[in-house]
Amino acid sequence: MPSANPRPPPGPLGATDPSRWRLDSSNDRHVWHYVRGEDALAYEEVWGSDDANVKQQEQNDETKYWEGLPLPGVEGLTDPQGDPYESAKKGYEFYKRLQSSDGHWSGEYGGPLFLLPGIVIAMYVTETPIPEEWKIEIARYLANIQRKGLEGDQGWGIHIEARSSVFGTGLNYVVLRLLGVDAEEPMMVRARSTLHKLGGCTGIPSWGKFWLAILNVHDWKGLNPTPAELWLLPEFLPFHPHRWWIHTRNVYIPMGYLSGRGFQAKVNPLILSLRQELYVQSYESIDWPSCRNNVCEVDLYAPHSKVANGLFAVLNVYDSYAPSFVRNAALKRAYKLVCMEDVNTGYQTIGPVSKAMNMICRWLEEGPDSDAFKEHKAKIRDFMWVSKDGMMMTGTNGSQLWDTAFISQAIVEAGLVNEEQNKESAQRILQWLDRCQIRENPRYYRQAYRHATKGAWPFSTKEQGYTVSDCTAEGMKAVIMLQNVPGTPQLISKERLCDAVDIILSMPNADGGFASYELIRGPQVLDLLNPAEVFANIMTEWSYPECTTACVTALSIFKKQYPEYRAADIDRVSKAAIKYIHSKQRADGSWYGSWAICFTYATMFAIESLSLADEHHDNSASVRKACEFLLSKQMPDGGWGESYKSCETEQYVHHAESQVVNTAWAVLALITAKYPDPEPIRRGCKLIMSRQLPDGSWAQEGIEGVFNKNAAISYPNYKFAWTINALGQAAKKLSKEGW
């Protein structure tokens, strides 16, 4: 049987032997290893360990699946024959094969194309050896996802489905050259032509300017400063950086430190060549100050406000005359914050952009032999993922808790947890959820401006350790649902669940909604200071319907189990949350989604919130309007399909084809709403079943996730968790007639 994810061809540096890769996803982490020959650079030269025990293992199904290799023993499975429960059952039977030995699911959390350049540039400038198999597979990945459009669209975009941009094309062209790909390689000629048609790297957005400046192929005078001195301001100020959104402040801390140091790589022949390849004029003739606000029109999603440009003008003057004692104090403060973030997260940091920047900071300050730099180097592997296309960098060190929580809930809600053959799998899930809960606050959580974490569940791993509101909620829901299955051991105590409730109850904002990592700390007018031209809504936290729904449903499930604990607080917070959900419904009946694509996703969550207030299709105008919206988007084949362009435009945009994930969300929304006509639900389920492969899996379709409106990101495990949940619930709640 052909693989659902066939491997694309080699890249400009060839391809590695796929049978030599091993995915080690034990102990929460996902780390890829390559079984090398004796003549290859030894692992211990790069990482300090050769991981011999992993290399001696046989490839497992998890490794083979993500590499796009055929799995053994699945050819004999038959189609579900129109029974949604059987389809869900077969889907989970396949998905169990991808479950890690420790109970969770790993996955390819890729998509954005501005992440990989940071770590490659960081390794290059810190003289960290890049393993040969990484070079080969990164080059293969970029070759396989290179745009194949017209002459002006043969580079890379901000993410894998976006059109070519200076940000994507310029940075990934640099990656390939640093890996050893020749400038005259045909794919490089096409990419360079695209880059030059877009105006060259003088028009790259500010984050791209930063990385090119670090590499010494762009001048620091060509960037607007984000000086570390901002951290010396009084904390009560409404624009103090500790009030910024947590990802933004964790990027601009090391960015301010490195730009304040004026650090740049040493000039060598490759850098001299790149200086000529990346621009449409000679490097020596570029007027760098004029580049500060020059951003290619294709890249420009969030233009600077007049307020931001005025502030940049002031900061540019200050930067030229900054007193050395003030600058040194600011750099010391920024570096201390970098160090605290490293310790708090086990050197993972909050994400891959800050990871790469912090790594350079520690190398520059403490040297390559320091314990801190060695720790950073060791954790690079947690962000690198081998797919059928090649090697990429993931959006965090994984999405382990998030994916595991959703499949946990799916098998309970679908009834699959009661199947004898699934009990061992469910037991391992619960054991992993037990280990994943964060049991204490990080060492420097107050000094580093962190929200409390005791009792929370993270997005990825306990080691990375950030509280996320909806991850805590979904993790707690999964635990309670699994522990309510007869015969299941009670691994997570009431006390620990109360700790999770305490965290959730610490996070509602004044509007009644929940944000992502912490409370809203600053006014939304801070977005007028947004310096990153490619993202929106990045300067402060916002409340989200999806996060709000997760939290209020978790509180509801907990209250049914333990009605005596903080009942008045739960009622108060839940009532305000439902009011917030109502306030965010759009005129067409939908809700805008900020973390996945898009209206389909958020509308499913919002309807779930309203159902807790006993609002359904028969008694709620809001729910009826939401159902009408969803039904107006159902496609002729019975499915739903939404494009990532919905996130950019904030208007519903149909995908070229229906998508099983969007369809599952719509089906679940209609079921939760108690929509009286079963036919649209049946049609959606039939579409999902028609896409199921003989082995029980589903093929990967369009990209599923998003952040900051303009950056799409992959959640390939969604095509299992949500389809299984939708089919199972439909089978339980609808008549079997007509399937």
Automatic annotation (TrEMBL):
GO CC annotation terms, alphabetical: lipid droplet
GO biological process: ergosterol biosynthetic process; triterpenoid biosynthetic process
Listed Pfam families: SQHop_cyclase_C, SQHop_cyclase_N
Pro residues: compositionally biased ranges: 1-12
Domain called Squalene cyclase N-terminal: residue spans: 95-386
Top enzyme class: isomerase
Keywords attached to this entry: Isomerase, Lipid biosynthesis, Lipid metabolism, Repeat, Steroid biosynthesis, Transferase
Top-rank taxon, per record: Eukaryota
Alphabetical list of CDD domains matching this protein: SQCY_1 (cd02892)
Region Disordered: start-end pairs: 1-22
Domain Squalene cyclase C-terminal: residue ranges: 399-730
Molecular functions (GO terms): lanosterol synthase activity; transferase activity
InterPro entries: SQ_cyclase_C, SQ_cyclase_N, Squalene_cyclase, Terpene_synthase_CS, Terpenoid_cyclase/PrenylTrfase
Family membership noted in the UniProt record: Belongs to the terpene cyclase/mutase family.
UniProt protein name: Terpene cyclase/mutase family member
